[in-house]
Amino acid sequence: MKHIFIINPTAGKSDQTKHIAAMVNKIFIEEAVEGTYRIEVTKGVHDATDIARHYAMSNEPVRIYSCGGDGTLNEIVNGIVHHENVELAPVPIGSGNDFVKSFGSQAMDAFLNLKELIKAPARKIDLLEVNGHFSINVINIGLDSSIAQNMVRFKRLPFISGAKAYDISVFYCFLTSIKNHFELIADGIRLPHKNYTFAVMANGQYYGGSYRAAPCSDMQDGLIDLVLIPSVSRLKILQLMNVYKRGEHLQKQYQKIVHYRQCHEVQVEAEHEINVCIDGEIKQLKNPKIIVHQQHLKLIVPSLENKTL
């Protein structure tokens, strides 16, 4: 098997290329790992997709290590989707790293342990698709997509991490329009509201630097977790924010504000193109349609405590 380490040197606050390359070289020499390995460093947007697709199309068994954040992971997913010969291993060195948080409190350390990650087995997980773009974690629209769009700006500020950038962006967007006009159809059922604060279609549980939007999500159940908040006042949003971050918003006392269901397909209808946030990356799409592909990706999962899928 080939082991391909795709490193995004701009992920996180500092370039980790030399550190990762040194660890990989040491592990393959000392552990006598079977197969060959190669280190690839991205040079720009979508490089990770192109590199991953190149190895995926070889039709040889390959394990690709996504050394970056959620954006790098998303790029690689879109390069390897539909290729059965590829396994994907996240190495979370980005600023947010929300995807791996779904696997429990020990996830970050476990996925950063390259020695164990190289030996770990693969599991099949679901993927989401929206208008030809694939998501491994979360798709969101409305206020959330505006927050994600502005978060990119704030992450460039000194000493601002992914989680802090998200919080700052929340405050910024909170001062602007929070009402979004679109309709939703879930598994053929048109939902009653026409104005929403935001809508989240989830495969994973976390996004936005540790907001646990979909605490019940299971990456192997073949279902989309749909979390909706119809248009509400700014005061209601403020009251809900910390509850939402902890993943407690699906409790009974919040059911008048937060709507939750599981489905296989979500159709969004709007008069114009809308911003759709796909694993943190923004796309402008007309009437986006979100579907789930059950157990469509081979994901490397190291040994974890408190792991969930």
TrEMBL record:
<dbReference type="GO" id="GO:0008654">
    <property type="term" value="P:phospholipid biosynthetic process"/>
</dbReference>
<dbReference type="GO" id="GO:0016301">
    <property type="term" value="F:kinase activity"/>
</dbReference>
<dbReference type="InterPro" id="IPR005218">
    <property type="entry name" value="Diacylglycerol/lipid_kinase"/>
</dbReference>
<dbReference type="Pfam" id="PF19279">
    <property type="entry name" value="YegS_C"/>
</dbReference>
<feature type="domain" description="DAGKc">
    <location>
        <begin position="1"/>
        <end position="133"/>
    </location>
</feature>
<dbReference type="InterPro" id="IPR017438">
    <property type="entry name" value="ATP-NAD_kinase_N"/>
</dbReference>
<dbReference type="InterPro" id="IPR045540">
    <property type="entry name" value="YegS/DAGK_C"/>
</dbReference>
<keyword id="KW-0460">Magnesium</keyword>
<keyword id="KW-0444">Lipid biosynthesis</keyword>
<keyword id="KW-0443">Lipid metabolism</keyword>
<dbReference type="GO" id="GO:0005524">
    <property type="term" value="F:ATP binding"/>
</dbReference>
<dbReference type="Pfam" id="PF00781">
    <property type="entry name" value="DAGK_cat"/>
</dbReference>
<dbReference type="InterPro" id="IPR001206">
    <property type="entry name" value="Diacylglycerol_kinase_cat_dom"/>
</dbReference>
<dbReference type="GO" id="GO:0046872">
    <property type="term" value="F:metal ion binding"/>
</dbReference>
<keyword id="KW-0594">Phospholipid biosynthesis</keyword>
<keyword id="KW-0418">Kinase</keyword>
<keyword id="KW-0547">Nucleotide-binding</keyword>
<keyword id="KW-0479">Metal-binding</keyword>
<protein>
    <submittedName>
        <fullName>YegS/Rv2252/BmrU family lipid kinase</fullName>
    </submittedName>
</protein>
<dbReference type="InterPro" id="IPR016064">
    <property type="entry name" value="NAD/diacylglycerol_kinase_sf"/>
</dbReference>
<keyword id="KW-0808">Transferase</keyword>
<dbReference type="GO" id="GO:0005886">
    <property type="term" value="C:plasma membrane"/>
</dbReference>
<dbReference type="InterPro" id="IPR050187">
    <property type="entry name" value="Lipid_Phosphate_FormReg"/>
</dbReference>
<keyword id="KW-1208">Phospholipid metabolism</keyword>
<keyword id="KW-0067">ATP-binding</keyword>
<comment type="similarity">
    <text>Belongs to the diacylglycerol/lipid kinase family.</text>
</comment>
